[in-house]
Amino acid sequence: MDAEPLVESFPMPTSDRIRSAYWDLYLSEEGTDNQKKWLGEADRLPRPWDIATCTDPDLRRDVWEWYEAVVTWFNHEYVWDPNAGMIPPCWTQHPHLIHDIGVLADQRRLVALATNSNSLEEWHRYSVPAFIERMAERVRQHCDDQHQAWPGKARFSRYSSQRPNRSQNIAMDSS
């Protein structure tokens, strides 16, 4: 009988595309001048922790799959009380969670590469509680039973509709 392990290991990105994106970012900082020149402007490189920068559809799909694995792992390994910190199943419908999950995943990826426990302690002490606190504040109980529509949609629409007025005020101030 195969016993399940007591703890699961962090799901490191296994996609060659994600690993290549991280390698390019590494070379953009630590590479030779020729490597940096070949890569071009570093600010144009995709950053897997910020999925919006991953414009290649294959890379973007791989990053989504990695985020899904990280969320599943996090909910299993770090959430005992489902009312306190579980990432909701509708997380892909919450841009604020997507942004936070990308950073949480990347920070934990860096922990896995460390040669001592200091960064894991910092991840436990700072990253996890801060993430859970932000998530609890933003999602509250809106998605406990099922996904709820964005409560701020009407207010954001009103804000967006005023863009011409803001642009005009800025233009008047700038002239």
Quick overview:
By secondary structure, this protein is mainly alpha-helical.
Can you describe what's shown?
- The chain is mainly alpha-helical.
- It has a domain at 51-146.
- The protein contains seven helices and no strands.
- The longest helix is centred in the middle third of the chain and has 22 residues, at 57-78.
- The model has no long low-confidence stretch (mean pLDDT 90).
Key features?
mainly alpha, 175 residues, 61% helix
Q: Note the total helix count.
A: 7
Work out the helicity level.
55-70%
Separation, N- and C-terminal Cα atoms = 77 Å
Average of per-residue pLDDT values: 90
Q: For the report, how would you describe the main beta sheet?
A: none
What structural category characterises the helix and strand content?
mainly alpha
The poorly predicted ranges are: none
Report the sheet-strand fraction: under 5%
List the helices and strands and how they pair.
Blueprint: H1 16-30, H2 33-39, H3 57-78, H4 95-113, H5 118-139, H6 153-161, H7 163-174
Helix pairs in contact: 4-5
